[in-house]
Amino acid sequence: MIRLLKRAQNTLHRSLENHGALGTLRLVPRAAKSAVLRRVRRFSSKAREAGEIEARFDRAAGVDTAATIELAQLQFDGQTDKESIKHGLRYQATPIEVFDALLARSGIDCSRYELVDLGSGKGRVLFMAAMHPFRRITGVEFSPELTRIAQENAGKFKAPRQACHEIVTVCADATQYAFPNTATVIYMYNPFTAPIMERVAANLERSLRENPRDVVVIYYNARCPEPLDACSRLREVASQRAQQGRDDPWVIYRSTTSN
Ligand SMILES: C[S@@+](CC[C@H](N)C(=O)[O-])C[C@H]1O[C@@H](n2cnc3c(N)ncnc32)[C@H](O)[C@@H]1O
User: Fold this and answer.
1) Which whole number is the average pLDDT over 247-251?
2) Which of 70, 73, 82, 91 to mutate to test ligand 1, by most ligand atoms within 8 A of the CB atom?
3) Strand positions, DSSP E, the chain
4) Which residues contact 208 (CB under 8 A, 6 or more apart)?
5) What is the location of CATH 3.40.50.150 in the chain?
6) Average pLDDT of the segment spanning 102-129
7) What does the mean pLDDT of the chain come to?
8) What is the CATH superfamily name and number for domain 71-255?
9) pLDDT at 42
């Protein structure tokens, strides 16, 4: 920030010397436009780079997880809870570099845990998790179409360093899902808004009360952390909160009854 201000100050100084006050004023819109353009170019080249990394992952693993899909593009049968559809969020895959970074921040020994991805979409996280020695990996997705794509992907998935071979995908609403009774990592990438998160957090709290065990919750793009924050059986172990001005907030919780 300070470097930016210094650079702006130097530019202004040079412009006043070369063009005078009036000339500088006239130049401002052009300067602002080119600064914005520079940022847009830098942003799109980053986005292009990310797209290439994702395409490379899909090609190498023999899967198709990349393209974003809005819930409005999907067909739900009459059995899907209307509230879940209303408060559900679109399919978008966790960026490749994010999952491993968050897993590392949790500091866990994967071989002691199952992993459940709540809102697993086409299954990207299941395949990234399979590179770690989890006991079992389960994807829970309420869209029948996305579940079918995830199942096709699971059938084609190949990776020389695959460490977990038990990958299951279930078509279910996260609010109806019964958490495993073992040590579990629950992963979520912004799957739904507060009304659904409240129900999921209440289910998790009840499950931890009935069967105290080690549960780690990794919540990426954490837009509705409040119900999990309020969960008396969870404590935050690491976070990058939204109010810190970041565009990808995340929170990692661990059950207070762990070990
Ligand atoms: C942002 S995507 C995350 C996909 C995947 N977890 C990943 O990180 O690559 C959110 C997913 O949650 C699913 N979803 C939304 N509401 C749900 C619910 N109530 N139960 C199960 N899945 C849900 C959406 O269909 C979507 O596929």
Assistant:
1) 91
2) 91
3) 114-118, 136-141, 167-171, 184-189, 215-220, 234-240, 250-255
4) 215, 233, 234, 255, 257
5) 71-255
6) 98
7) 90
8) Vaccinia Virus protein VP39 (3.40.50.150)
9) 61
